[in-house]
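task queued by scheduler; priority normal; single chain, no ligands, no partner chains; default sampling; output format set to structure tokens
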Amino acid sequence: MGQYANQPDFGTSAASVTKNDTISVATNLNSSCLYVGTSGDVKVILSGVTGASGSGLPTANEAIVFKNVQSGSVLNVIVDYVLSTGTTATDIVALK
């Protein structure tokens, strides 16, 4: 039997998310899933999107909005960015 921390099905670290419209290495959530504490819309850029700008970073045009995510939900997608514009949900936690 493997160790708990080596199991990819479980989160082993968590951090509060600061919504941000700046897309940079510093704001990257590094392939996290999200827990939404207070319901609303969540605008994200999915993990692995590299963008067409040639910089290797995605743009806001490549974001998608998950509408009306309920309080206490785990958003079962892997994301790199949570954008401020278009996100009305609060108390978001990144899980890895």
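post-processing summary
- The chain has a mean pLDDT of 90.
- The first strand starts at residue 14 and ends at 16.
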